[in-house]
Amino acid sequence: MKRCTWCNLNNPKYIEYHDYEWGKLNTDEEYLFEMLILESFQAGLSWQCVLNKREAFKEAYDDFDIDKVIEYDEKKIEQLSNNPNIIRNKLKIKASISNAKIFKSIQEEYQTFYNYLCTFTHGKIIYEIGKTTSTLSDSISNDLKKRGMKFVGSTIIYSYLQAIGVIYSHEKDCFLYKD
């Protein structure tokens, strides 16, 4: 079976992520939050690096329970900063907490974060390959930044939209390709 060229065939976690998760629409709010946090930690790193630490992130971030994350204090920030199993960038850790608060306020404003995303996508799946940004990711990124989120540049948001299945980007040679 051929897969997208970015999928490291020597990494079972990567293959599983590619085959069963990436590009599949998932509107579960907990998943949307988890992926936004993980994608923000990817900034400047590879997705494989983040994916390999995903289970450790889940444990460190209380299973991405947003109500717990928004309450993290300096003690928890220090604990996360000293956790060798996750990415210990203090700016990203602090941003993940403030981003959680903004994510929660968006949920309150739109009932769900997915509803918020639909104000940009009109509920449609975008089929495109070979891009790292788009006018859609630019628009969402700009809005999230206006709301105060950090580490949500257009490239990160594009990757996020691919991860949650709003943008479907399996390559033409991949067994999961659709147009």
TrEMBL record:
Pfam families for this protein: Adenine_glyco (PF03352)
Highest taxon listed in the record's lineage: Bacteria
Residues the record lists as binding Zn(2+): C4, H18, H170, C174
Uppermost EC category: hydrolase
The keyword Cytoplasm belongs to this UniProt entry's keyword annotation: no
Keyword annotations of the record: Glycosidase, Hydrolase, Metal-binding, Zinc
GO molecular function annotation: DNA-3-methyladenine glycosylase activity; metal ion binding
Keyword Zinc attributed: yes
InterPro entries tied to this protein: Adenine_glyco, DNA-3mA_glycosylase, DNA_glycosylase
EC number: 3.2.2.20
Swiss-Prot/TrEMBL GO biological process terms: base-excision repair
Protein name: DNA-3-methyladenine glycosylase I
Organism: Holdemanella biformis DSM 3989
